[in-house]
Amino acid sequence: MTTTLTPPELRPAASPIANSLTAGKLPQGAPWMMLGASLLVAAGVFGVVAAGNGSEFNWVGTLVVGAILYIVAIWLFSRIVEGSRRATDRFVTALVTGAFVLAMIPLVSLAITVVTFGLARFDAEFFTSSMRNVTGEGGGALHAIVGTLLMTGTAALISIPIGLMTSIYLVEYGRGRLAQGITFLVDVMTGIPSIVAGLFAYALFAIFWGPGTRTGIAGAVALTVLMIPVVVRSSEEMLKLVPNELREAAYALGVPKWLTIVKVVLPTAIAGITTGIMLAIARVIGETAPLLIAAGFTQSMNYNLFEGRMSSLPVFVYTQYANQGNPPEAYLDRAWAAALTLILIVMALNLIARLVARFFAPKLGR
Q1: What is the distance of C-alpha 50 from the center of its chain?
Q2: DSSP type of residue 173
Q3: Burial of 64 by CB count in 10 Å (0-12 exposed, 13-18 middle, 19+ buried)?
Q4: At a CB cut-off of 8 Å and minimum separation 6, what does 79 contact?
Q5: Helix intervals (H) in 242-327
């Protein structure tokens, strides 16, 4: 008796499985249904408690208990249907997702709060006038915005070359105890309190101009002390990611080391270096304590970094909130508007960093 084998393409297709539970897999919408059911159960429990005690409904407790019930439910049903490995995967996924949502709640709440209260004084007068001779409503933060841009820009002009060249030395040239000492000092400076940087800048300029001297350049130096270690650390890590094969290929063609760094290493790492620099600027632009000590605050415009006190947006927010006058709502509105302006400046810097990283990154395609 001869058996004829049927080719695979001529065999009848297997009937699709109608019930995914019998295939060892939860339905596609099962996690969402479990999440909704968990929240409904938690809402029911807290609703009964609120009705019995005559208190308000606890939304926070409902979300927390609902999340816990969901994690337990997704792990239990997945273990029954899909097995222990898939259940563990779903359990860890639920924990990671919950941690992400938990981290986003204060960020979103902060953004909504600042935008809600800051729009009350987000007008033309706020950006075109200072607080000179203003004791109640009106006025603006132009002097603080100019001071922030001048001091932060000066700090960036000082910090970026020093930090970048230090990182190049540590990665490309540094060997022995000198490099180890520099690395140790950078690590120490990374954790230095910001008020210590302000005291250092104040003491440094008090030596030359006398005690009580507060200027914009002193505030810029204080920010520089805080910014340099961040630039060094971020640039060093980016330079380490450049493959050694690129350097060796340049050396094989007879290219000097300094030219290899300028033409090969830095262009390859420019995207990460730019991002690190913008993170360093965002790190120092919101500092209050060092600027309050080194630069002070004023209600008038000051474009000269080397003469007179200079205000900044963080210090402006602090003074408006701490020294409320009549009516207090006007001072609080100005503080919220200045905080919103500071957030928008940081957002703009990050967007610029992304654009620079995108356009100046090396093209890998042929």
Answers
A1: 39
A2: I
A3: middle
A4: 87
A5: 244-252, 257-260, 266-285, 289-294, 313-322
| Architecture field, domain 134-360 | Orthogonal Bundle (1.10)
Per-residue pLDDT of the chain (366 residues; tens, 9 = 90+): 455 555 545 555 444 444 454 557 888 888 889 989 998 998 888 888 888 887 888 888 888 889 999 999 999 988 988 888 999 999 999 999 989 988 898 889 988 999 999 888 888 888 888 888 888 788 888 999 999 999 999 999 999 999 999 999 999 888 888 888 988 998 888 888 889 999 999 999 988 888 888 899 999 999 999 999 999 999 999 999 888 898 889 989 888 988 999 988 988 888 888 888 888 898 889 888 899 999 888 888 889 888 888 999 999 999 888 888 788 888 899 999 999 999 998 888 888 878 877 776 666 554
Q: Which two tokens stand for residue 159?
A: 């910090």
Q: Where are the domains of the chain?
A: 28-120, 134-360
